[in-house]
Amino acid sequence: MYCTLDDIKGSMTEDRLIELTDEDDLGVIDQTKIDKAIKSADSLINSYCGTKYSVPFATAPDVVNTWSIDIAIYYLYKNSDCDELPEKIKDAYKDAIKQLDGVSKGTISLGEDPAPSAASEGGASSNKDSSDRVFTRDNMKGF
Prior knowledge:
Layout: H1 5-9, H2 14-21, H3 31-49, H4 62-78, H5 87-105
Helix pairs in contact: 3-4, 4-5
């Protein structure tokens, strides 16, 4: 996972997390909902970054951690009973998506080596050249 509950706690209060995740009114954070939001955020990040990098990242760049936090918080709000999504949460989500789109298009670099690209043009390749020919015009005269 690119972020943890502690990372999310650094961006919002524990009371707010309880409010967003505790449907049973137990007064505790529902870790399952946190994990689900983080997993969804990480899947989204991988879908964008996977076009240029090998994902999942073994050691995620700091910006990936930030995106994971912002997107996971957005998902927590979207999946909760909250009536209104705060503007700053929407803006952080939109900004993360905009940056991820830049990564996908190659206009934003994560500072890591991109994954090797597959051969895309030219068709088939061979280790043979014209000197390897068995049948030539000269040795095929008369046939």
